[in-house]
Design goal:
Structural class: mainly alpha
GO molecular function: peroxidase activity
Largest sheet: none
Oligomer: single chain
Organism: Geosporobacter subterraneus DSM 17957
Radius of gyration: 13 Å
Keywords: Oxidoreductase, Peroxidase
Strand content: under 5%
Protein name: Alkylhydroperoxidase AhpD family core domain-containing protein
Helix content: 55-70%
InterPro entries: AhpD-like
Length: 80
């Protein structure tokens, strides 16, 4: 059970809503990590830019990057 409640799009400020909408367009969902970061919009904004840069730049396919994230989480027995 989460200690900090992930926020819904209806509970966040307008800038955070734009980030949530970008996730919905790109992924079809809003990852819980970002829903939780929305309690601190400045952290959400920074984390989103960092996440987007990692996934959308470089020569490694985005699907492989996602699979690596899932596998590392599994190896560390973490929920992804």
């Amino acid at each position: 059970m989460a200690r900090i409640k992930p926020l819904t799009p209806q509970e966040v400020d307008q800038e955070s809503q734009q980030i949530f909408e970008a996730f919905l367009r790109q992924r079809g969902n809003i990852p819980n990590m970002f829903r939780t970061l929305a309690h601190r919009p400045e952290l959400l904004k920074t984390a989103y830019k960092h996440f987007s840069t990692i996934l959308n730049t470089g020569t490694v396919d985005i699907r492989l990057k996602e699979m690596v994230g899932v596998r590392v989480s599994q190896m560390n027995q973490c929920e992804y």
